[in-house]
Design goal:
CATH architecture of the largest domain: 3-Layer(aba) Sandwich
Radius of gyration: 28 Å
Number of strands: 17
Largest sheet: 8 strands, mixed
CATH topology of the largest domain: Alkaline Phosphatase, subunit A
Low-confidence stretches: 109-118, 695-710
Mean pLDDT: 91
Bound molecules: manganese (II) ion
Strand content: 5-15%
Shape: globular
Number of domains: 2
Strand order of the largest sheet: 6-5-9-1-10-11-4-12
Amino acid sequence: MFNKIKNLINTRIGFLGLLVFLIWIKTVIVYYADFSLGLADPLQHFIAIINPIGFAVVFFSLALFINKAKPSYIVMLIFYVILNLLLYANILYFREFTNFIPFTTMTGVSAVSKGLGTSTLSVMELKDVLFLLDFLILGILFATKVVKFDPRPYRKLNAVASTLAGLAFFSLNMMIAECNRPQLIGRTFDQTYVVKYLGIPAFTVYDAIQTAHADQVKSTATGTDIDPDLAYVHKNYAKPNSKYFGVAKKKNIIIIHLESFHQFLLNMKVNDQEVTPFLNSLYNSDETLSYDNFYHQVGSGKTIDAETMLETGLFGLPTGNYFNHQGTTNTAQAAPAILNQQQGYTSAVFHGNVGSFYSRDTVYKNLGYDYFFDQNYFNAEENNTMTFGLKDKLMLSESAKYLEQLQQPFYAKFITVTNHYSFELPDYDSDGFVTSDTPNKTVNQYFETAHYLDNALEEFFNYLKQTGLYDNSMIVMYGDHFGLTPDQTPYVGQLQGYDLDSWNDFNNAQMQKVPFMIHMKGLKGGISHKYGGEIDALPTILHLAGINTENYLQVGTDLLSDQHSQIVPFRNGNFVTPKYTVIKNKNEVYLNKTGEKIDLALNPELKDKISKWSQQIKAKFKVSDKINRLNLLRFYTPTGFKPVDPSQYSYQNQIERLEKIRKDLGNSSTSLYSKNDDKSTTDMYKTDAPELKGNRDPIDNLYSAENKAK
Ligand code: MN
């Protein structure tokens, strides 16, 4: 038996097999010991376990094409070293960034890679010498002559066969992956997914191709390319409303990203109970600017499209998402940086998912976010999380200990996740709310998670009121995109008394409405029927904060302005105006008031108007897409704005940094913690989250976190 194996290894193909075996075992160990790939089901474990094989076979088999034995062995060993270096570099990178090395970082192009060298050395660990174990084994095998070079030349045909076998294995791997995660490559949710399903070398190649393509397109751009876009934005700029301009000046701005939240949830009753009683109270409050004709405008990037619009004032990409595809390298002039530079805001994001998801941990630096509290900053033990991260009540309540440390005014964004497809809430998280009994399970569950989110927000607002933050904060809430699909929304329509037989594209378009509410003590609010969409959020918010958006390249307009454009384009080409809903690809037009379909053949005047509006919309998307695709903001810096240097931002050691800032500022520190006589406010946060009953540390604040670390 031993001799058989020995004889096999002493052939060239056998040696290839040995190297594949070693790198395979090593990679799988690294997957489990060093990376957190988020392997959820047995199939995912299986895919992860087999995925190193295919690529390694193909890669090493290239050396078989060298006819002579010695050079062929040497090349094979060099390839082996290359795969090892790639693996080890990713281990080090992962320790620091909990993500895999993007191609741009490897080539030193990205600003993040500056200063990487020294910090990388510091994350090396003693146990890393184990990484060299296989080299020791190989050395011993050669020294003891257990492994010898096979001097015979290798036949080309066999080399071809080996490569093809590797490719076949890789294709099979890809097919299984595609079954487990459809559109893996097309939609790229998270770089971790590519590694989990296809392995690290495949990820590197994939990322290199993507980068090369995007770079090639960008490199053709020059400084004058932005001129027509500047002219467009200037012409379409809407002046601020003097009644509202600056009413929130220097107030904290709190953004609450309501995951998958439809407008129809507001004021809706199921079994005679309000689904979202707390949000309803805000929606109907005199101190809330509420909108009932506000639409999401996302494409395939969904959550990220919503974030992109809100932060940058530009649309998401026509395909894919801005964060993964452009945001890591593009120049941005985004809300956190604008607010910081114009009025000294500190900025932070709170999110219960891992930071690498959608490359947020990289993109947020380009946007100018000072702090990013991702899942690592929360107690994310198993019962506390669901598919997309920490449950909202837990994320919001645990955020208090970080929020109280931010210098005021702050711009803080909370990205909720519990109301995310598949809308499953454990029974113990329910407060007795009895949901609908439509034939569609997803619809019934949707009301439950929305209700949970509503509860979570009420607790959060109570904390804001308790601590006084409420009195000097403007709170903006928006639904990021639809939660229910056109197959599911008719069941909601049925609950609302619609006749399902006549349910059509018009109704579906209406279902794309999401909440947009701006709440502030003393704000002159009310429910506005103005038409608008997510692209209009940023200019509206900035004007309220007293920052004129005239010089910024944002394609939406201030909802409060008299000059606001009420034509709301959807990313699929459909659009709504205050009077009509237009379904572009079917050439259908509906009257908003009655839902009645209009025959355009009998209405040539309207037909002309619609084609004019369509042109306007196309122009708007074109400007936005061009700026993003060609990275044009690098050629234009608005007056009074300083380009963001992402290398100046880090999301490591954030607690220590906040501490230091507070101590350095002494009496002039404006954090809530300082205002509260240097005492934590976390005990003012009351939550009924069952996960915390009995095991919550009452002095769970910065100091105890620090002491634990010591
Ligand atoms: Mn979302």
